[in-house]
Amino acid sequence: MPKASKELLGKLNDAIARELQVVVQYMWQHVLWSGVKGFAVKDELKKIAIEEMKHAEAIAERLNYLGGIPTTKPAPIFVGSSLKKMIEQDKKDEEGAIKMYKEIMALAAKEGDEVTTLLFQKILTDEEDHHDVFCTLLEEI
After folding, report:
1. For 78, 91, 120, 130, which has the most beta carbons within 10 A of its beta carbon?
2. Measured over all CA atoms, what is the biggest interatomic distance in the chain, rounded to whole angstroms?
């Protein structure tokens, strides 16, 4: 079984907490939307929430394989009181994920963990796409 540093295991748990956060956050935003503009984005929020759930699962499986115990506690959830506030927060959360995942990839590469690096390269592609969606949505809100 491969070995991972406590630092990498901790960062993987941070990533899981972040993914759990946005799963709930985006899904509740999908449920709580209002107005015509909300109607236009509700399905995208649900789609992204499901993608984030898959990320949490993949990261948890990797963490478990490396000998860690996946967290069940999400990072703080922000639903927002208006569609604009929701999407602004979502954009910030994706920016934070992009930064975090680049740090995880660098640490995994430093430790010679090619599989974790590849996993986060794939997830990073999705996170950048989510960020683009939220930036585009903000243009019209």
Report:
1. 120
2. 52
Which residues lie below 8 Å from residue 94, measured CB to CB, with a gap of 6+? 127, 128, 130, 131, 134
Task: Estimate the crossing angle of helix 35-65 against helix 6-32, to 10 degrees.
Answer: 160
Give the domain ranges of the chain: 6-69+80-140
Neighbours of 136 (CB within 10 A): 12
CATH of domain 6-69+80-140: 1.20.1260.10
The rounded distance, in Å, linking the Cα atoms of 83 and 129 is 19
Q: Which residue has the tokens 């990320």?
A: 55
* pLDDT tens digits, 46-64: 999 999 999 999 999 999 9
> Which residue type does 81 have?
S
Q: In terms of Cα–Cα distance, which of 40, 139, 38, 51 is closest to 79? A: 38
Stated pTM of the model? 0.95
* DSSP state at residue 73: P
